[in-house]
TrEMBL record:
It comes from Salix viminalis (Common osier). It comes from the Eukaryota. Residues 188-247 form the BTB domain. This is BTB domain-containing protein. Pfam families: BTB. InterPro entries: AtSIBP1-like, BTB/POZ_dom, SKP1/BTB/POZ_sf. Pathway: Protein modification; protein ubiquitination.
Length: 353
């Protein structure tokens, strides 16, 4: 007996000693994939009670399909046991379609959209009426989404780019353009005079960021006529940091270094988001060396959260005793209403023995 296979045939052929040729079905376990679609073609589903496909890759996992014939045709989809499937278990959202190959007049079976966590072959079983399908079968699995389920809990995240990813890429591109506009003064149309130098900027960016700047260029003011702004209470470096914020290219290091000047500019030019960011930042590192200065800034710029944080630090946590040498000078220059508010805070936390 000899074994051979014809080119392109899905069958093995056995040649017996008496010259007879017997056709035997080849192990049709290969799954083809393209994009997010996996297709398993089964040449003959009749004689088999169980079939399992070869592994196929979609996303970061290798997958298997299997069919089992009993009272119905049961289709299973499951990931190959591996470190990836164990540590990053997939949550698959998919649709299964079953049809007879070449049977155009027979309606295919299309499953509902399934979405579930898959770890083993027992996690998903799709029963299909076996009487409707026989012979050559085509099983399609269309993956609509694949998410990673973290081991330590938390929200699952898709492995494929979505709207958020595209928006992020778009934002990065815009920021690169804005950075070039600022650094290279591309079509700059306004000059800013600072305490120690000049900068170039764009009226449209300034106007969109600040109603104060918008008013300067909208009404017949000298800034509109001369295309010049004087910000002489800021240094060149701190003003450049302000522009970097408005153009979306500021670094954390520069923000931290110039947040005092940025707070003053945010208040002066009514840049609410920057003012809030400065307040949150100043709240993060209150200590005995800066608490009184922060209290004064909170009062000056009407930062209620920062003011409350300073009062809590001084009185609830008893740090007022650590600044007793500085408190006298503070009170000599402090606003009377601020002094009254601080005294009221003392009465609130003071508990007579």
């Amino acid at each position: 007996m000899s074994l051979f296979q014809t080119r392109g045939s899905p069958y093995f052929y056995f040649s017996t000693d008496n010259g007879r040729t017997i056709k035997s079905e080849m192990a049709d376990s290969k799954v083809d994939t393209i994009s997010r679609l996996a297709q398993w073609r089964i040449e003959n589903s009749g004689p088999y009670s169980y079939k399992k496909s070869d592994p196929f890759k979609v996303g970061i996992w290798n997958w298997y399909l299997s069919i089992e014939k009993n009272r119905c045709l049961c289709i299973r989809l499951f990931p190959e046991p591996s470190r990836a499937s164990k540590e990053q278990s997939p949550i698959a959202k998919f649709v299964i379609r079953v049809s007879n190959a070449g049977a155009y007049n027979r309606r295919p079976y299309i499953s509902p959209v399934h979405e579930r966590l898959l770890r083993t072959s027992e996690d998903f079983i799709c029963p299909v009426d076996s009487s409707a399908f026989h012979g050559r079968l085509i099983i399609d699995v269309e993956f609509l989404d694949l998410k990673i389920c973290p081991l330590n809990g938390g929200e699952a995240s898709s492995i494929w780019p979505g709207d958020g990813t595209m928006r992020s890429l778009s934002t990065q591109g815009i920021l690169r353009c804005l950075s070039r506009m600022l650094d290279e003064a591309i079509h700059a149309d306004v000059t800013i005079h600072t305490a120690d130098g000049t900068l170039s900027a764009h009226k449209a960016i300034l106007s969109a960021s600040s109603p104060v700047f918008q008013s300067m260029f909208h009404h017949d003011l000298k800034e509109k006529e001369s295309s010049t702004i004087y910000i002489e209470d800021m240094t060149l470096e701190s003003c450049m940091t302000l522009l970097s914020y408005l153009y979306g290219t500021i670094t954390q290091e520069d923000f931290w270094k110039h947040r005092g000047s940025l707070l003053g500019a945010a208040n002066k030019y009514d840049i609410a988001a920057l003012k809030d960011a400065c307040e949150e930042s100043l709240l993060e590192d209150i200590n005995t060396m800066n608490v009184l200065e922060r209290m004064q800034e909170a009062w000056l710029y009407q930062l209620n959260k920062l003011k409350k944080g300073c009062l809590t630090y001084l009185f609830d946590f008893g740090k007022i005793y650590d600044v007793r040498d500085e408190i006298g000078d503070f009170f000599r220059h402090a606003d009377k209403e601020l002094m009254v508010e601080m005294f009221q805070e003392v009465l609130t936390v003071w508990k007579p023995v």
